[in-house]
Amino acid sequence: MSWTTLWLLRAALLLALFSFWSWLAADEELAFFVGHPHAVLQQLWRWLSTGNGSLELYWQDHLLTTLNFPGTLYPHLLVTLTETLLAFLLGLTSGLAFGLWLGLTPTLARVLSPFIKAANAVPRVVLAPLLVMWLGLGIASKVALGITLVFFAVFFNVYQGVREVSPALLANVRLLGANRWQLIRIVYLPAALGWVFSSLNTVIGLAFVGVVVGEYLGSTRGIGYLILQAEATFDVNTVLAGIIVLTCCALLFDALLARLERRLSAWRQQSDDEQRRW
Q1: DSSP of 60-73, one letter per residue?
Q2: Membrane-crossing residues (predicted)?
């Protein structure tokens, strides 16, 4: 199937969904629950083009600068994207490091196993109020909640990837004189990253979920905050507009991650070549 045909089919499906939504919204009583596509688009346009949005940046209670925007959506969107990116990067790096560490130290992994499973079993919604109490209504509590979701997803993938490295491959590489750092760089790290790459799209989605839930439960900025304000007034069109903004951002991150994975695939191929040389 050509790219042109594929995009035409996608556009046709989107048009069909939009038409079905418009048909449902023709009933005024039903429109109260499902919204109206035209009203949602109008709300998006108002967010983007009307009002004077501003965002004050502080460092240790000192005002650094004030950013001004041509619409009310931009400061909220910037806050949500910043929180999501921080949660994704911090959760990814910490999960990767901790997964490698425990994967290479089986004794410590057995000791910590029940504690890790217990921590992962705690519902994140329960943690959100505690994080707000500890870290306040700023971005720190939202980033921390996102990290709790991203960290465990990455950790378990990395740990599993390290544990499934072939013992025969390790024996051969050690026989050829590889030290511990070379084993990590040539064998363990590529094996772990293979599992991480396969879950990046899921991980960025988890970062979004954690951040938006945190904003929803306690914040003064962000897309989750806008959705909460709209829900309080039963404004379903604004709620749907916020969901559309989040969906578009998630698709953008997904496209960027796909490009990054293609770039890093060359490094993975190089690592595979090094393994074969060993």
Answers
A1: TTEEEEEEEESSSH
A2: 85-109, 143-162, 183-216, 236-258
54 contacts 45 by C-beta, under 8 angstroms: no
Half-sphere exposure of 175 (CA within 13 A, CB side): 9
Tokens 């709620």 correspond to what residue?
239
Residue 86 lies in a domain: yes
* Among 65, 73, 5, CA closest to 238: 73
Classify residue 146: in a domain, yes or no. Answer: yes
The domain of 127 spans 73-277
- CA–CA dist 124, 212 (Å, integer): 12
**Domain count of the fold of the chain:** 1
Note down pLDDT in tens along the chain; length 278 residues: 788 888 899 899 999 999 999 998 988 888 888 899 999 999 999 998 887 777 777 776 777 777 788 788 989 999 999 999 999 999 999 999 999 899 888 899 899 999 999 999 988 888 888 888 888 888 899 999 999 999 999 999 888 888 877 777 777 777 777 777 877 777 777 777 777 777 787 888 899 889 999 998 888 889 999 999 998 888 999 999 999 999 999 888 888 887 877 776 655 555 555 545 55
Q: What is the CATH number of the domain that holds 122?
A: 1.10.3720.10
**Spatial distance between the Cα atoms of 149 and 146, rounded to a whole number of angstroms:** 5
